[in-house]
C-alpha cells in the first residue's frame, strides 16, 4: 500500500496572507485533494518579535475565504521548541553535530578573513573537531550541524529538475542557539518529519534552504520529502511582485470585490497550466492538477486579467449568492448607505441582478450599479449624466413624463412601445429619449435597459425621479 500524500502550508505570521503565499497554499491544497491526501497547516511563529496573533487570524481567515480548508488542527511551531531541541541533542550524541563556543567578535573576524581571501563569508569549522575540554568557562555554546566536507547535495525537484549543490559551499550552520531555541532550518525539518509530510511545495526562494535541510534529513537518517519549488510571482513589468503591483493581503482582494472562486482560478494560472485553459472550475483544477504541470518560468500578476476572470465568475453566479456577497462586502468596507439600501430592497436587487451581472467585473461595481434601486430622492446626477440633461432634453422629458403617467400597463413591452411611438412622432431616434431618461432616473449613463429599470423601481418612483429633474 502506497503512503498517503501529506502536504503542508507553513506561513510565517509576520503580516497578511499575500498572493504568493495564497498560491503556495492553493497548490498544496489541490495536490492533496487530487491524490486523496491531506494538507496540514503549520504556523511558523518562531520569530517571536514579528509574529502576531492578528497575523495568525488573517492567515486563517484568508484561507477560509479562499475555500482552502486544511486538515486537522493548525500546528504552532513555537510550541514544539522542546522537540526541536531534543533532535539537536540527538544529532550531538550521534556525532552529527557539535557545540561551538565562538564569540560574535570571532565570527566577525572569520567573515572578514574569508572576504579578504576572496571566499564566501561564513563559519570556518573552528570547533568542529576540537576537544570539548577546550571549551571556555561560562560561555553558552550554539549547536552546529556537521555539513559534509565533500561531494554534492542533490535536490530532485518536480519544477526545477535536478539541482546540484557543492557541499564545499555549505557551512556548519547553527541548529540550536545559545539560549536553547531552535533555528528555522532545524524546526522545519523536524516538523515536516513528525507531520509525515511527503511533498513540499513552496517558493523557489527556499531552494538553497532545501540543500541545508537535506543535510539534517541525512544526518538523522530520515526520508526526504519530494519537493517542488515554484518560481516567485512578478509584476506586469517583470520585477519581483511588490505592493505597487498588487502584492496585497488576500483580505484586500475580498474588499475590492473579487470572488473566491475567481481568485482560485486566477492564482492557479500564476504558475500552473493545463493546455490553454484559462477558465476552469475548482473541480476541474483538482482533476487536471499535477506537479509536472507547474511552470518553471516566473508568472506575471495582471490586474486586468484578474478582473476579466472575476467578471466571468460574476456572470456565472446565482443572484442569491451575489446578493449575499454584496451585503457582506458593503458591511466589510463600511458602506452603510449601500448596506441599508440592499437590505431594504432585497427582492428588487435580486430581480435586477441578471441585468447587472454582465456589466460588472467586481462586486463593488455591482453595488455601484445597483444603487439606482435604492437611491434617495432627489438622486445625485453624475457629471456624465448631467451633460445629457440639456434644456432641450428636459423639455422632451416633460412630455415623456405626461405620456408615462397615462400608461396603465407598466411593463417593459408597454413602455418600449410608448417610447418608440413618441420618438417616431417627434422624428427622433429612440436613444435621444432613452439616454436622458436614464440620466434622470438613475443619475448615470450606464445601467441595465432603462425600461427594465423603470419596471424594477415601479411607476411611482420612476415618475417621481423624472419629476425631480424636469421641475428643477
From TrEMBL:
The keyword Translocase does not apply. It comes from the Bacteria. GO terms for cellular component: cytosol. Its EC number is 6.1.1.17. A motif ('KMSKS' region) lies at residues 240-244. It is found in: Cytoplasm. Residues 4-307 form the Glutamyl/glutaminyl-tRNA synthetase class Ib catalytic domain. GO terms for molecular function: ATP binding; glutamate-tRNA ligase activity; tRNA binding; zinc ion binding. Its main location: cytoplasm. The keyword Protein biosynthesis applies. Residues 345-469 form the Aminoacyl-tRNA synthetase class I anticodon-binding domain. Signal peptide: none annotated. Catalyzes the attachment of glutamate to tRNA(Glu) in a two-step reaction: glutamate is first activated by ATP to form Glu-AMP and then transferred to the acceptor end of tRNA(Glu). Monomer. This is Glutamate--tRNA ligase. The gene is gltX.
Amino acid at each position: 500500500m502506497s503512503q498517503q500524500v501529506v502536504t503542508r502550508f507553513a506561513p510565517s505570521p509576520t503580516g497578511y496572507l499575500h498572493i504568493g503565499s495564497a498560491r503556495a497554499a492553493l497548490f498544496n491544497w489541490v495536490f492533496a485533494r487530487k491524490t486523496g491526501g491531506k494538507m496540514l497547516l503549520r504556523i511558523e511563529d518562531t520569530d517571536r518579535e514579528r509574529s502576531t496573533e492578528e497575523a495568525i487570524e488573517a492567515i486563517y481567515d484568508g484561507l477560509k475565504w479562499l475555500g482552502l480548508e486544511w486538515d486537522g488542527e493548525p500546528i504552532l511551531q513555537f510550541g514544539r521548541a522542546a522537540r526541536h531541541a531534543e533532535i539537536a541533542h540527538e544529532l550531538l550524541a550521534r556525532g552529527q553535530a557539535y557545540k561551538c563556543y565562538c564569540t560574535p567578535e570571532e565570527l566577525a573576524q572569520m567573515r572578514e578573513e574569508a572576504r579578504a581571501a576572496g571566499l564566501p563569508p561564513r563559519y570556518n569549522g573552528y570547533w568542529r573537531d576540537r576537544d570539548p575540554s577546550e571549551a571556555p568557562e561560562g560561555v553558552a555554546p550554539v549547536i552546529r550541524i556537521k555539513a559534509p566536507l565533500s561531494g554534492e547535495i542533490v535536490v530532485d525537484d518536480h519544477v526545477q529538475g535536478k539541482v546540484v549543490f557543492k557541499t564545499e559551499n555549505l557551512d556548519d550552520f547553527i541548529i540550536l542557539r545559545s539560549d536553547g531555541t531552535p533555528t528555522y532550518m532545524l524546526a522545519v525539518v523536524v516538523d515536516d518529519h513528525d507531520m509525515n509530510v511527503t511533498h513540499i511545495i513552496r517558493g523557489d526562494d527556499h531552494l538553497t534552504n532545501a540543500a541545508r535541510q537535506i543535510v539534517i534529513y541525512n544526518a538523522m537518517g530520515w526520508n526526504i520529502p519530494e519537493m517542488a519549488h515554484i518560481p516567485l510571482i512578478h509584476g506586469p513589468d517583470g520585477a519581483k511582485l511588490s505592493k505597487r503591483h498588487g502584492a496585497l493581503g488576500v483580505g484586500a482582494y475580498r474588499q475590492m470585490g473579487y470572488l473566491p472562486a475567481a481568485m482560485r482560478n486566477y492564482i492557479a494560472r500564476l504558475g500552473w497550466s493545463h493546455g490553454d485553459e484559462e477558465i476552469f472550475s475548482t473541480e476541474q483544477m483538482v482533476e487536471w492538477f499535477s506537479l509536472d504541470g507547474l511552470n518553471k518560468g516566473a508568472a506575471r500578476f495582471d490586474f486586468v486579467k484578474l478582473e476579466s476572470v472575476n467578471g466571468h465568475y460574476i456572470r456565472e453566479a446565482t443572484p442569491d449568492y451575489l446578493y449575499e456577497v454584496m451585503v457582506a462586502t458593503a458591511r466589510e468596507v463600511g458602506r452603510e448607505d449601500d448596506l441599508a439600501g440592499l437590505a431594504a430592497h432585497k427582492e428588487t436587487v435580486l430581480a435586477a441582478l441578471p441585468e447587472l451581472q454582465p456589466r460588472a467585473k467586481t462586486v463593488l461595481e455591482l453595488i455601484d450599479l445597483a444603487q439606482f434601486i435604492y437611491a434617495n430622492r432627489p438622486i445625485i446626477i453624475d457629471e456624465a449624466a448631467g451633460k445629457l440633461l440639456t434644456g432641450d432634453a428636459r423639455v422632451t422629458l416633460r412630455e415623456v413624463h405626461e405620456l408615462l403617467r397615462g400608461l396603465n400597463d407598466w411593463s417593459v413591452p408597454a413602455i418600449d412601445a410608448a417610447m418608440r411611438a413618441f420618438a417616431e412622432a417627434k422624428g427622433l431616434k429612440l436613444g435621444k429619449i432613452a439616454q436622458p431618461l436614464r440620466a434622470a432616473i438613475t443619475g448615470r449613463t450606464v445601467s441595465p435597459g432603462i425600461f427594465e429599470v423603470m419596471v424594477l423601481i415601479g411607476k411611482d418612483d420612476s415618475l417621481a425621479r423624472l419629476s425631480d429633474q424636469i421641475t428643477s
